[in-house]
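ok so I'm stuck.
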Amino acid sequence: MQRQLLTQNLYKMKRLIFLLVFITAYTGSLFSQLPESWNAHFSKIYSVSFSPDGKYLLSGCYDGVITVWDVSNGEMVNEIFAHVDAINAIEFTSDGKYMLTASSDGRVNIYDWESGDLVISAPAHSGGANSISVSPVSDEFMTVGNDQRFRIWEIPSMRRVLADATHQSNVYDCSYSPDGSNFITVGQDSHIKVLQTTRGELLTTLRGHNDEIRVVQYNHDGRFLVTAGYDKVVKVWDIRTRRERHSLRGHIEHIYVVDFMPNSNILASAGDDLYIIIWNIPTGERMKTYATDISTKAIAFSPDGKMLVFGDENGNLNVIDTSEFVD
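replied:
not stuck anymore, here's the structure
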């Protein structure tokens, strides 16, 4: 009996070794290890954003603190005690005048970026504010939260312009189209809502995911829309036809974040499976995969597209030189 068990165990080990060798040979050209990271926070990083001029990187974490970093030397230049709960989103107005933050404490803050002064802090969503999208054509921005609603606000007064409940459960992300004519909301109900901006009229509902959608983003010219979430699939939609173009499979756990390289159709995606995947969106090709050691919930390309930054649940920031996957 012992001899039989030993033989079975040796056979299983040989199969495992063969499988590992096969996987390495098959994926070796796609996988790379992340470079050394530095400790940015003492708690999980939930959001990262570059200033519009690319000189500063901001990271927001679970304890409500935003850290400002000098991109030229990686040194911390400021800490902002912005909220009493997780910082879920950090965005800038296109002119760089204002910085906006959204938090699980349900509040949205607007800061004067040059002076660092808090302009206004106001309750936005009961149960938590999850995302911000700034209009590309007007002095307005949109937020979504766990109260099933989107709300559109004026900058910097935070006068509410429009609000409605478009989902039956938590709304996790939102995105204006590049021309500002419509916007998208996604959430727990797995539906993709396309709405007209000025009236909030529902134009269409896209369906294709079979679980919660955590993130949505347009590409630079508005031709493609990308969604991803708990079903582990990145879906690419052709906005002109309102049809699915690709289902990109590569992640094996929940996807939390995506980001397009500026003025490009290259996308980065990340989540719980310890992989950062770089995609060519028009072709659906997986260009590169970075293996990490912890879940990632924050990601951003620099405005010039030369850097890709990830914040992880250990409070670390990882900086990737995009020349590794861009000619």
